[in-house]
Write a structure and sequence with these properties.
Elements (H helix, E strand, L loop, with lengths): L3 H7 L4 H4 L5 H5 L24 H13 L6 H7 L2 E4 L4 E3 L5 E4 L17 H9 L4 E6 L2 E5 L6 E5 L4 E4 L5 H14 L6 E5 L17 H5 L4 E5 L2 H7 L5 H11 L32 E3 L3 E6 L2 E7 L9 E5 L4 E3 L22 H16 L4 E3 L6 E2 L1 H26 L16 H4 L11 H13 L14 H11 L3 H13 L3 H14 L4 H16 L4 H16 L3 E2 L7 H6 L2 H11 L10 E7 L4 E8 L2 E6 L8 E5 L1 H8 L5 H6 L3 E5 L2 H8 L21 E2 L1 H10 L4
Length: about 700
C-alpha cells in the first residue's frame, strides 16, 4: 500500500512553485550563493534592493521556456486601430488624474527587466492599447482607458454599449473619441451590463442620465441577480476587502520596474467618479433572445462563474460572440486574494462549453470585457476549448489530488496546469494564479482545515511565535540562518523563520527589514500581478509602516441608494460591538410605507437581528418613515434624530434606544495593521487619489 507521504513525494514539482523562489535548486542544481543584493538605484524606496542572482536566474529560465515564438496576440491586439487619444492623461472632475497610461511607458521597451517576470512584461505591453479600434464594421471598442474596455455596437437608431468602464471621466473620454471618428452623432440607445463588478458599470453616468432612462430613450439590461449581487459581494466584509486589495492591487506601489507593473486584466483601475443607474430590464432565463434597438441579441446567463451575476451575448447579425469576463487572455480568479466567495470552476467550464456549442462554431469574431478580440472561427474555438479545459482541469485534478490526501496546505506545491495549456498565453496566470486558485478549489469543497488535529485549534501567530523563536535559539540565530537562506535564494524558507521572529518581536526592525528583502525577491519572480503586488506591498509596509490618510470608500451614493434595507440592517449587526451589548435587550418595529416594507429589529444575547415582513405586537420602539428618507441615514447625511425633529419620521415608545444602538456601532478602520509592528512606524500620508483607486479596485473583479 502506498503511503500518503510516498504519494506526495512521487508527484512532479509544479512549475508554479519554481516561480516563487527556492525551487530553483530543483531545476538547475545547487542555489547560487551570493552577497546580499545591493540597494537598487532608481528604486522608489530607500531600502529597496536590486534583484539577486537567484532571482535573475529564475527570470532567465522563464524567458528560455515560455512560448515567445507565438506572437498572434500582438497581431490581434493592434488590429483595427482607428485612432489613439493624443493625451494619455484623463483628468477627473475633482481635479486629480483619473487615468494616466503614460506612467506605464517603461513597459514598451523591448529589453527585459531583471525585476519583472518576462511573461508579466509581455501582458503589460499588450495592455498598452490606448485607442479606438474597429472589431468589424458596426462594432468598435475603446481599449486602454481603464481596467476594462467599452464596446459600441450599432443598433437601428443609436449605439448599444456593452460595459461602461469603472468611472465617468474615462468613459466620457472614450465616448468623445468614438464620436469624433465613428459615432455619427448618434446617441446611446442601450447599455448592457455584462456582470456585477464595478469596472463594468461605474462609468454609466458619463453617457446616460436618469432622464434618459425615465423617458425610455435608453434601456439598461443586466443579468439576473445583478443589483443584489452588486451590493452584497462588497458589504459584509467590505472593510477587510478594501484593506486586502491594497496588497492584491498594489495600491501603494509606485508604477515602476521595482513596483507596480500591470494588473493583468488591464494596466490599472481608473480613479474617477463612479455612479450607478439601475437596470430597466433583467435577463432572467438561461437563454433569452430579444431585440435591442432593432438588433437581435441572444443572452446566455452564466451565474456563479467569474461573477455571481454574469451573461454572455451572441450577436448573430455580426457573427460576434461577446464572452463578458468569462473568457479573457488569462487564467482568472477562482479565489480572489482580496476576498470573496470562492467561484465554481466546473460550472464556469460548462458555461464556456455551452457558448462553444451554441454559438462558437458559427462565430467569426469573439470579443470580451478585457483584452482584445479573436478573429476567425478556428482561433475562437481554440481559445474557448482551452479556457473550458483550464477551469475544468483545475476543478477536477485538484479534487483528484485532494481525494488522495493532498491538503489545502500542500495543493499549491503539487497541482500544475497541464503542459499543453501552459504553452498557451491565454492560459497563463495574469489574474488568477495556479497556486492560490488550487487552494481555492480545496477551500470551496473542504474548507480551511487540513484534517490534522494539530491545526484544528491553532494558536494565534503572535502567541505561537515566541515558542518557535526560543526553540530556534533566539533572534541572533534566526537572523544568521535567514541571511544564509536568503543568500542561497531559498526565500520561502527564509520567510518561514523570519515571519516567526517578526510575529514574536514586532519592533525588531532588522528582522522586519530582512523579511522585506525576502518578500521583495519573491515578488520580483512572480508572473501573476496579484502575487507580485502582495509580496511587494508586504515589503513596503514592513519598511514604511501602515499608510495613513483619507479612508477608502467602497461605494458611492448610487450604490448606497441601491442597497436593500435588509442588507443595511444585516450590516448593522456586523458593525455592532457585541461586547458592549451584553445585558441589553430591545425590540424595534421599522415601517417604510412608501415601499411597503416592515421589519422587526431585535437586540438580545448581544446579537442584533432583523426579519422582514413582520411587526412585533409589543415593541419598545416603533419608527415609521419613508425609504427615501432612510437612505439619508444610510448615506450618513442625516440621522434618525434629525428626521424625527423634521417630522419625517414618526415614533412611539422609547426613542433613547436609537442613541443606545448608535453607541454600539464601530467605524471600521480601513487601514488596520497587516504586518506585525507596522502600525507604530513612520506613516506616510496616502493621497485621496490612491485611495480612490483602492475603492475602484474593491469592486473591479
Amino acid at each position: 500500500m502506498t503511503t500518503r507521504r510516498e504519494f506526495l513525494s512521487a508527484l512532479p514539482a509544479t512549475g508554479a512553485a519554481f516561480a516563487i523562489g527556492g525551487a530553483l535548486m530543483a531545476e538547475s542544481g545547487p542555489a547560487l550563493a551570493q552577497t546580499p543584493p545591493p540597494l537598487a538605484p532608481g528604486h522608489f524606496h530607500p531600502k529597496g534592493k536590486a534583484p539577486s542572482e537567484p532571482t535573475i536566474a529564475v527570470l532567465k529560465q522563464a524567458r528560455a521556456t515560455l512560448p515567445f515564438d507565438d506572437t498572434r496576440d500582438f497581431d490581434e491586439f493592434n488590429r483595427g486601430l482607428i485612432a489613439r487619444r493624443a493625451d494619455m492623461v484623463i483628468a477627473a472632475d475633482a481635479g486629480h488624474s483619473a487615468w494616466d497610461l503614460g506612467r506605464f511607458a517603461f513597459v514598451d521597451q523591448t529589453e527585459e527587466f531583471d525585476t519583472v517576470h518576462p511573461s508579466m512584461h509581455r501582458i503589460a505591453q499588450l495592455n498598452q492599447n490606448f485607442g479606438l479600434y474597429e472589431v468589424v464594421p458596426g462594432i468598435y471598442q475603446v481599449r486602454g482607458f481603464d481596467l476594462s474596455q467599452a464596446t459600441f455596437v450599432r443598433g437601428k437608431t443609436g449605439w448599444i454599449l456593452f460595459d461602461v468602464l469603472t468611472s465617468a471621466e474615462p468613459m466620457r473620454a472614450a465616448w468623445e473619441l468614438f464620436q469624433e471618428h465613428v459615432g455619427e452623432g448618434l446617441p446611446v440607445s442601450a447599455v448592457v451590463y455584462s456582470h456585477n463588478h464595478g469596472d463594468h458599470w461605474g462609468g454609466v453616468r458619463a453617457v446616460v442620465t436618469d432622464e434618459d432612462v425615465a423617458a425610455g430613450r435608453v434601456e439598461i439590461i443586466a443579468p439576473v441577480g445583478f443589483m443584489e449581487n452588486l451590493i452584497a459581494e462588497n458589504v459584509y466584509a467590505g472593510n477587510a476587502m478594501n484593506r486586502r486589495l491594497f496588497y492584491q492591487y498594489g495600491v501603494l506601489l509606485p508604477v515602476s520596474p521595482y513596483g507596480y507593473v500591470t494588473q493583468g486584466l488591464g494596466q490599472a483601475v481608473s480613479r474617477g467618479s463612479t455612479g450607478l443607474i439601475a437596470p430597466t430590464r433583467i435577463v432572467s432565463d438561461a437563454i433569452e433572445e430579444f431585440e435591442v434597438d432593432g438588433l437581435r441579441l441572444v443572452f446566455q446567463n452564466t451565474p456563479d462563474t467569474e461573477a455571481p451575476s454574469e451573461m454572455n451575448t451572441w450577436i448573430p447579425d455580426y457573427k460576434t460572440l461577446w464572452m463578458a469576463e468569462n473568457v479573457s487572455a488569462t487564467l482568472h480568479n477562482i479565489y480572489t486574494l482580496r476576498g470573496a466567495p470562492v467561484r465554481d470552476p466546473l460550472r464556469w467550464s460548462k458555461y464556456i462549453a455551452g457558448a462553444l456549442y451554441l454559438y462558437g462554431q458559427q462565430a467569426e469574431v469573439m470579443i470580451t470585457a478585457h483584452h482584445w478580440p479573436r478573429w476567425g472561427n478556428a482561433r475562437i474555438q481554440e481559445v474557448l476549448r482551452a479556457q473550458r479545459d483550464l477551469y475544468a482541469h483545475m476543478n477536477n485534478h485538484v479534487l483528484h489530488l485532494a481525494n488522495q490526501g493532498v491538503t489545502i496546505n500542500q495543493i499549491h506545491n503539487v497541482y500544475q496546469v497541464p503542459a499543453s495549456l501552459q504553452d498557451k498565453w491565454y492560459a497563463r496566470g495574469y489574474h488568477g494564479s495556479p497556486q492560490h486558485n488550487a487552494r481555492g478549489v480545496v477551500q470551496r469543497y473542504l474548507g480551511f482545515w487540513d484534517c490534522n488535529p494539530a491545526t484544528l485549534i491553532p494558536l494565534s501567530p503572535a502567541d505561537s511565535a515566541p515558542l518557535y523563536v526560543g526553540m530556534m535559539g533566539g533572534a541572533t540565530a534566526i537572523m544568521a540562518r535567514a541571511r544564509s537562506l536568503h543568500d542561497a535564494g531559498d526565500y520561502l524558507l527564509a520567510i518561514e523563520i523570519l515571519n516567526k521572529l517578526v510575529q514574536a518581536e514586532p519592533q525588531n526592525r532588522d528582522a522586519a527589514d530582512m523579511l522585506a528583502d525576502a518578500f521583495e525577491q519573491v515578488g520580483y519572480q512572480q508572473e501573476n500581478p496579484g502575487l507580485r503586488n502582495s509580496f511587494l506591498s508586504g515589503a513596503y509596509e514592513l519598511r514604511t509602516g501602515v499608510p495613513q490618510g483619507q479612508s477608502p470608500k467602497s461605494s458611492g451614493p448610487d450604490v448606497v441608494r441601491a442597497m436593500s434595507t435588509e442588507l443595511w440592517l444585516n450590516f448593522l449587526g456586523i458593525r455592532m460591538d457585541s461586547t458592549r451589548a451584553e445585558g441589553l435587550r430591545f425590540t424595534i418595529n421599522l415601517a417604510l410605507p412608501d415601499i411597503g416594507e416592515t421589519f422587526i429589529i431585535e437586540l438580545e444575547n448581544a446579537t442584533l437581528t432583523n426579519i422582514r415582513g413582520f411587526q412585533s405586537a409589543t415593541p419598545d420602539l416603533a419608527i415609521t418613515l419613508n425609504r427615501s428618507d432612510l437612505v439619508t441615514v444610510m448615506m450618513g447625511t442625516s440621522s434618525f434624530e434629525a428626521l424625527i425633529s423634521a417630522g419625517k419620521a414618526k415614533t412611539t415608545g422609547d426613542v433613547s434606544i436609537l442613541a443606545t444602538l448608535a453607541g454600539l456601532m464601530v467605524e471600521f478602520d480601513p487601514l488596520f495593521e497587516v504586518m506585525p509592528g507596522t502600525a507604530p512606524a513612520a506613516k506616510p500620508d496616502v493621497s485621496a487619489n490612491t485611495l480612490d483607486a483602492a475603492a475602484g479596485a474593491s469592486i473591479a473583479e
